[in-house]
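Note to self: keep these together.
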Amino acid sequence: MDFRWSLVWESVPTLLDGLVVALIATVFGYLIALVLGLVFALLRRSRSPWLSAPVGFFIEFIRSTPLLVQLFFFFYVLPLIGISAPPLATGAFALGLHYATYTSEVYRSGIDNVPVGQWEAARALNLSTRRTWTSVILPQAIPRVIPALANYVIAMFKDTPQLLAITVLEMLGVALSIGSDTFRYAEPVTAAGLMYLVVALVMAWGGRIVERRFGTVRG
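Structure:
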């Protein structure tokens, strides 16, 4: 079968709808990952083993199971006990939770790299625990890990095709739908692949800008 570039370009307008869905899932999933990741990192540093141990186990459990399995669990199993949400919301949450376990380790590495003297200075100034974290530790830890955090938004965007398993029609799903209508899969899938590439490159370029702007800890 001959490959027609004209069909690739004809697929683009329809694929843009799928791109919007993929970006929505990525944005909301990334915000969830950033917030939950920080919460996990702080809880895992708790001095109470009754808190840190379950959180540590949960993080390792999520990291050690495939995202696809988690998607199926949230979308097909939880409704059996009365917990359900629209496919896109479920997909964004699953992405966010999955990547939160990775961002938590990134946050933890940034916190561990804050000089010991900063902790000692906070104690010497008799700062409260909340003030120590919000005014001393996190403002130094987070800029150190911005480059690593930026990489995860690209990885999350590239994982959005897995949302097809729970009926979310992002770009790959739209491409396959076009193929089923036209009986030509090569062209729409190629168009989707090129669009993934372009968007990922733009995200990488944006990540470098953020890294240059915020990735240096100022003394």
